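Q: What structure does this chain adopt?
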Amino acid sequence: MTTRRQFVTALGSAAVTAAVWPNRKLLANSVRNVSPSLPFTPIPTPMPTLLEQQQVFVDLRFGMLSYFNMSTFQDREWADPSAVATTFAPKHLDVAQWATVAKSANMTWGCLTVKHHDGFCLWPTATDSMSVRQAGVPDVVRSYVDEFRAQGLKVGFQFSMLDQRQHIERYSLTPGKIELIKEQLRELLTNYGDVAVLVFEGWNVPWARLSYDGLPFQEIYQHIKTLQPNCLVCELNGIRYPGYGLHYTDLKPFKANSGQVYPVVSGTPGCALMNLNHQRWFWQQRDLNTDPVAVKTVVDQWLTPFNDRRYTVLLNVPPNRDGKLSSNYVRRLAEIGSVWKHPGPAARLLPHPVVTTLSLLRGKTIRASPTVDAYGPDLLNDGDDQLLWVAMFNQQPGWAEVDLGETRSFNMVSFAEGVGRRADYPVSRVKNFAFKRWDGSNWVTFASGTTVKAGTILRVPRVSAQRIRFEVDTGGVSGWISEISVYDEPDEL
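A:
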């Protein structure tokens, strides 16, 4: 088995033939060649675990998000994908100013929107996507990473999977388009040094409709971890998944103005994206005369409570058409910095398993104990956490059985409960639960528990079965279970 130390050594060679990412095994055929001529510095050994990386991230506390792209020059949130490249025309790009302003607010890192939904790239990509190359503008990503690092700030990138210019959209996905995404990520992760976080948008959310089936999460996740094992993935899918665990992301996301509610479950490492200019993400002409969000709001309503819940706050401060931060934003960031000081490391994190594969139960034949009308068991394994299965209160424990159709191996389970969906359901009603497998003669428990918040994710010793049973006791009242899942995850080291 390749060790993390061997993996780092391999990154410096002309061809990587086998690799490991933190807490994951990686198949050799998913590894890309990495040229030693690229300006990429291998991570020192020993490599940190995923939990250690997450701790470093939550310790950052506060960062600057820079929504700056084609939309900046159109007074739109989603730019026109048919716009000519020269529409993007910052006359006095000054990324050093952005970094200086970030430092004035005691921020520790920054994140740049390198590609938004229209598909324009802020780096001179070698793919056939439109970029700064066609616009006649220097490499914005290069300027960004150089200037922020020069002032001691870590860097991250925000990348949209939805790409209207390349028609990377629902029903239009092809293997070639998936490879285009992977190639653009390869450019970003090999040409610009260490990237702390990749924030993904437009992927498996209702408004983008790009599912993890068509645009495979695990394949892209593995690709990223192969190129930069210490790069954390923050997938902005929070409106699709419950708050208690990490589903298809290394960091629990929260994005203001995107239909999410304030996270009520603490302890999961997270990233909260907030807006200094109220409701808009990209700079618009009217922002010149807009009073930014108040210092008290940023400090008392965002930074303090989110930091207490182990979230790092990423505050969007959008540059204007000159490529600078307007004076009203500069003043407000300095005011924030005069009030808020970095409090030091966050409370220690506990391990949180990360789901990266699709559930083996989804769409399979399922039957259950007596169920409340219209809340049938098919809602338990449909891949939609918003729909609920409700077992009869007088049938305890309630149960559901799934036939996989063939014997499958798996090592992780999860279930979600509909806590908070109604005022009379404020806390978990689950007294105990169990996952069981049919061994040919009996149902054998392989995972169980009694303490839940709104559900749970459990890694278990690898087992195999064709039939799986979920049992739940809600203490004589109706329990709302929204999803049960079983996963075949890469084994931990």
